[in-house]
Amino acid sequence: MGRQNETGAFGSRNLILKLARGALIAAAYIALTIILRPFSFGIYQLRVSESLCLLPVLFPEAVLGLFIGCLGANLLSTNNLLLDLTLGSGATLLAAYLTSKIHNRYLAALPPVLCNAVMVPLIISLSGTFEKDTFLLTYFTNGGIVLVEQFIVCYGLGLPLLRLVRYVADKLGIPVREWKK
Questions:
Q1: Tens digit of pLDDT at every position of the chain (181 positions)
Q2: Can you give the residue ranges of every domain in the chain?
Q3: What does the angle CA 71 – CA 72 – CA 78 come to, to the nearest 5 degrees?
Q4: Helical axes 110-127 vs 132-151, angle rounded to 10°
Q5: What is the CATH architecture assignment of 9-172?
Q6: Which of 82, 107, 116, 179 is most buried, taking the most CB atoms under 10 A from its CB?
Q7: For 179, left (φ over 0), alpha (ψ -120 to 50), or beta?
């Protein structure tokens, strides 16, 4: 018997698996954000779901899943919903895309750290009632805080998660992109 045809009404089996993986990543992002809501929103936040932002190193389809997950999670925002949906989700999309282009797992944590350190303080600063003369101080202070928070999440949680996912994928025979050691 020959190999079965892997295409059907919705395209190839590979495409369906990638879409499903992206959907699972989106659901995981939303679930982690909801479960850990007190840590996920506000001026000081350790959004544990951001540790998933390193997954595009292994699975490029994670880019869309992370964007949709962040968009869904940001619908829960009680501050400035429009800014969270556009700038916040946009920062995650940009970070995930840049991460997908990096093949070194240690460098791959930088885009989420840097993109969020630039965009999240802008959201916080624009959401507040700060005077013009304090806007830059507020922005850069929050930028430093977000930089540290994202560094903790992406390097402290994201890198170990990435190694675990890689290990499990190898054991289960799930193909992943190669990374530089």
A1: 344 444 544 557 788 889 999 999 999 999 999 888 777 776 678 789 999 999 999 999 999 999 999 999 988 877 777 888 889 899 999 999 999 999 898 999 999 999 999 998 888 888 776 677 788 888 899 899 999 999 999 999 999 999 999 999 999 988 888 877 6
A2: 9-172
A3: 90
A4: 150
A5: Orthogonal Bundle (1.10)
A6: 116
A7: beta
